[in-house]
## 1
Amino acid sequence: MNGQMKETQALADKVMFQTYARFPITLVRGEGCRVWDEDGKEYLDFVGGIAVCALGHSSPLVTEALEAQSKELVHVSNLYYTKPQIELARLLVENSFADRVFFCNSGAEANEAAIKLARRYSKEKHGEGRHTIISMKGSFHGRTMATLSATGQDKIQIGYDPLLTGFKFVPFNDLTGLEKAVDDTVCAVILEPIQGEGGVVYPQEGYLQGVKKICDEKDLLLIFDEVQAGMGRTGKLFAHEHFGVAPHIMTLAKALGNGLPIGAMLSIEDLSSAFGPGSHATTFGGTPLVTAVASTVLKSILDDGWLNHCAQMGAYLKGRLEGFREKYDFIKDVRGLGLIIGAELDRAGAPVVKACMEKGFLINCAQDNVLRFLPPLIVGKEEIDHLLETLDEIFEHFPADNG
Ligand SMILES: *Cc1c(COP(=O)(O)O)cnc(C)c1O
């Protein structure tokens, strides 16, 4: 079997672009919080497809919705109305600050839509020249040209210049810096309420409220990128609900379809006239198939107690990791909310990720030194205990001079 595994991976390395530094396992099956590789080895999954599989792998609800809708109608384009799309939009509007929804296929596309809406609206309202969007250092908004231009990390932008103009960066958690950056070319501020790829960076007390105040005073649009932290991951449906601050525009993707590709851009009514017929479009956006599944996912997150469960499991995991901090001085910080949790180390986290994988646990590392935990929201306490036991073992033997 091992020989066969090597063969599969050798073929992959030959026929696909090497854009991903993949781990040397080939996953073939999943159920709940578990996945199996082609040798039959089992892993407890604390990555969840990068915050995507909120209801876990092979969720019977999802499978059933997928199967039923695939027999009815998969795709017809947005030249026509389709019922599952309208139903998902209704659910999102009823359960958020927003009045309108645009569907697309990924987080990057949702942010593209947000950037386009903000610019077009501002041009209509304020005239030429008001197009700059302020973004945060350490942010991540996607890999398309516009969204990588909006991303505050050099490593994402390298080699792709000239980048799109009209983006400006200020440090996250710095209200003074933000205020100083606002001039009369600025139309909007985009940020993740909790930065995910940046290493689970948490907003300081009063920060998001302060950003909202600046936006209100200067008549700027506030865009929240909730692609990673939204859809229940923090224990509320949307991360911003914890802070009592609503944006004008919000983007969603990752967990929205539990693994089917779907993104959404939501906004308040006032902006909707800027996106009239012909202003923006995508062929696959909100197909009956993905929206039928996403409605099922959203209803389950809201109605089946997963938000409370996520808050409880998150508090437990975070508390236990904080306990580790006293025992292991290489753990510098533990941050997060619900089941988006980061443990910042004073050294590279890759050896921990590798050791976990060998012992049958998938975890992830952001920014080289932040162990990141994004398990399905349905993860159980026993599964968390199992991971913690293994982490404890690994930490005991973690070489002091590593990294
Ligand atoms: C993953 C992510 C994106 C990009 O989503 P894709 O579906 O990969 O295009 C954008 N913003 C945030 C906050 C993300 O975590």
## 2
Amino acid sequence: MNTLNKENIKSGIIKYLKIKYRRTLDTAKDFELFNALSLTLLEHIIDEWDNTDETYKNTKNAYYFSAEFLMGRALGNNLINLGIYDDIKEIFDELGLNLNAVEEIEEDAGLGNGGLGRLAACFMDSGATLEVPLTGYGIRYSNGLFKQEFKDGYQNEKADSWLKYGDPWSIRRDDESTIVEFADMTVKAVPYDTPIIGYKSKNINTLRLWKCEPLEEFNFDLYNSQQYSEALDLKNRADNISRVLYPNDTGRSGKILRLRQQYLLVSASLKDIIRKYKEQHGAITEEFSNFNVIQLNDTHPVLGIPELIRILVDEEKLEFDVALNICKKTFAYTNHTILAEALEKWDAELFRCLFPRILEIINIINSIFISELKSKGYNDHQINEFSIVNNFNGQVRMANLAISVGFAVNGVAKLHTDILKNSELNNWYKLYPEKFQNKTNGITPRRWLRLCNKELSNFITELLGNEDWVKDLNKLSELKKFADNNEVLEKFLQIKLTKKKQLAQFIKENEGIEIDPNSLFDIQVKRLHEYKRQFLNSLYILDLYFRLKENPNLDIPKCTFIFGAKAFPGYRRAKSIVKFTNDIANLINNDQSINGKIKVVFVKNYSVSYAEKLCPAADISKQISTAGKEASGTGNMKFMLNGAPTFGTLDGANIEIVNESGEENNFIFGLKVNDIENLRHCYNPWDYFNNNPDLRRVINTLVDGTFKDNLNNDYRDLFNSLMNEGDQYFVLADFRSLKDTEDKVFEAYKDRLAWAKKCFLNVCNAGNFSSDRTIQQYCNEIWHINKCKNTK
Ligand SMILES: *Cc1c(COP(=O)(O)O)cnc(C)c1O
């Protein structure tokens, strides 16, 4: 940091309070202090940011195209990465100000749904920290993922106006706006740049998000002739495109608007990349891919492929085959899920309305691809499976486009990549074995340990003698030598208790529920999906409650079960599960007769900043998806890094977590992928229902009037999903195994030090799950880009 010191930080804050708000330190509100401090820091990094841009100019750059960036808050993370958190805290203390309150006033940038968007955010942090030329391109939604509230146990959605206190960390770059053309409208994409500060590095990377605006603010002629609403209509139509993030985690919806968003993202970003390339290198040739590589985060930005061809052919006057060759060396695709409903398919008709030229180009790509397949001897049936355009219904299959043109296809955990290769995309794997790769997801240790758990971070630093682990997470394995040191384990337990007390306080303030920090915190937080099986967890807890009522002396530790999850507003069953879990919580928390032995809290509005409070406080990380369904999971890694054993199925990255930290330090249960394959054709949930009275008792509460569902038949529908629609996610089949494994947790939790050791060993073995490792693998194995240190 070139010029930062106590004096100029203080004077910076005072200056910005004055020019932005006409305030002084003694009258400033928290959000004003937040903005003033942020602007002070931004001012101090701006030269390094410019220098980083310069440094990256003559080298190969990677671009991460993603419809979602779930960034969360910026201030605390930036303070950590700049290495000045403690200094700022000191300055605030001296001034009688509360830094924590200022951090808490910041709204999350919730421009993503869940894991996929949060992964993009972690990758940005790792890219800057590893000093690699990685730029993020996305959309600056005016409204992020909805805010969640509960009413009578049901989820209500409210608009998320994350910009209400301003967005001091982004800079609007009007001068680099680009025009994006649809068949029926032409709009302006305005970039907002956010600095991504590398941890204790002079490299500052860029996240560039596009806001959609009309070409002119309003049509003066219409306005002048008093056609006010017509004049505003044009503006609204443009503004709408980047107005709101789709809260849909898998399926597709709001078709036309969503397609416009996708096209806006890729068209604006590619024009930006091409402009910069031409400034450096002149006319575009096949050399382009020696300097640019684009990672497509899922299928949402796959329109980038035909759009790049369109620009190269129509605007840059290249031959089609040259343009296609450039694409084949420039694009790589990440697959995030095997859930069928998530694979994007669009009616060609929509493409024809919005961007007919793109459809034309897709058809040409497809016919070239099909003739290749023919020359390789594939038959018509096989060819239709590969075809980018479905012959029967005319739909465009985005994954097929990405795999056929892209030079690399990666899954996000070992099991997931194996499933892609061996079943889901097996035909593609046989066609292009060389394209398939695995890149197990990761999380940034800056946000997910150094920032969110300063107590544990400081202890680790004390034990290891330095902070190198923050940049080189494998160093955590050196902690193993303390795993039998009782003094270390006691201190470790004490830190966990501190984090649990902090969470309990926050939950009391935000949810109005008191929980006991000395109880076992069993936490399941993630988007709400049937495959993630929050339902199984709820049914289990209800069963535990019934057993406790029958036998008040049941030998279990005091437990607090915590849920956090948003349900897609149009996903009825997900919302019913929210309601069911809230009803259970109500029943249990209000029953005096169990003496608070178990409590259930469904925290509202689960988000990145909430996750930062939950993960450090967990005793158990619940990761209980149906085996084969969770591609990777990253929540599991956050909990592990903060020392919670995984209670989970052998699914996604859970498998790798257990491989690293040992089966004996985790609680693995349930059907495995193979078991499910074998069971699938003969599975009958009624067998389990009839043979297990405990299970029958809890499932019956859905239809026997125990809980009321506003007469919407929501609970009847949940009952049907289990009993009359074949229980697709094997909830009944895994119930007993889950229960038996919970008993093992209760038993193991009794021995404090043995428990602490399990938790501690999870921390020691979490090194592999740093997104630094993941990004280094992308650099070496897909992008072929190098570290490029800013030394200016
Ligand atoms: C990490 C994270 C996720 C992903 O959680 P999974 O358990 O991997 O599904 C979702 N939402 C938020 C806010 C997160 O921080």
